[in-house]
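WP5 quarterly update. Target: Terminase small subunit. Source organism: Bifidobacterium ramosum. Length: 95 aa.
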Amino acid sequence: MAGRASKRQATVRNAANSGDRRRLLVSLRNLIADQLDSGKVSPRDLAALTKRIVDITEQIEAIDMAEAEKENPVATALNVADEPLGDRIGADDHP
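Structure tokens (predicted):
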């Protein structure tokens, strides 16, 4: 088990040293997930870790969405809210 913890620390350290924010967030998310899965988290820490993993996941998703928008400018330009078709049918026919 000590080898696994050491490897995880090295992974987080490497991610932090890489300067890649997404990579660091993924490493932290995985570290927290491992802690939660271990069943050794005190009840006092459970709520804080659960909230933190949700926050980190949202940050990762935001980074991924921003990257997807950069990669596909057409999709970004077309990213408008859909209008229900039923509201438009015949709208021009009635005063």
